[in-house]
Amino acid sequence: MKNKGKIVMLLLIASEAFFFMALIIAYVYYRNFTNATDTVAKNLDVVKTGIFTLFLIASSFTLIFSKKALLNEKYVLYKILMATTILFGIVFIIGQVNEYMGLYKKQITLSQDIFGSSFFTLTGFHGLHVILGIIALSILFGISFGKLKIVSISAIQGVDIYWHFVDVVWLFVFYFVYINPLL
Fold it and tell me: Given Cys at both, which of 68, 125, 158, 175 links 9, Cβ 3.0 to 4.6 Å?
């Protein structure tokens, strides 16, 4: 087995994919197949969240180029692109925290109703995954300044797969929670 870490990461992602699918399906079910009124959708700022979404998507591209720089032994470029990836992830989280504070001011909370619960659970777990990804990326970034200087390719491949997964999940969340109610 050539890269056990990559296989373990793929298994983790497969289980997480089912978890997120269940959360998305529950949200869509409550909105489309029950008599409950979606109390969250009308209070979401789709444009602002769309901008923060672009930062998250851009972070996938900076990570791709960072990995390519590492493979080509361009370590300074690797560090710049990895720092940019981390920064873009942090900007996304800041956007999510800002959105949560705005919703809280409008009395929309986790315990308000089924939509508050499912919205905060779905977006909160995604945010947690982004934070875990930022931590993993930061560890790889920090290693490049230590005694080792060179980050192993297998380490970045595992984190790379995870980060792209988190981005793809967000695209589904953004569509079903933010865009679909407008259609």
Answer: 158
At 126-166, the pLDDT tens digits run: 999 999 999 999 999 998 887 655 667 777 888 999 999 99
Report which of 140, 131, 182 is spatially closest to residue 159, judged by C-alpha positions: 140
Cβ contacts of residue 149 below 8 Å, gap of 6+?
A: 75
Q: If DSSP codes are grouped into helix, strand and coil, which group holds residue 163?
A: helix
User: For the residues of 41-102, what is the DSSP string, one character each?
Assistant: GGG--HHHHHHHHHHHHHHHHHHHHHHHHHHTT-HHHHHHHHHHHHHHHHHHHHHHHHHHHH
The Cα 71–Cα 84 span in angstroms is 18
pTM score, whole prediction: 0.92
Contact (CB, 8 A) for 2 and 154: no
- What is the CATH number assigned to the segment(s) 4-31+43-182? 1.20.120.80
What does the alpha-carbon distance between residue 19 and residue 124 come to, in Å, rounded to a whole number?
13
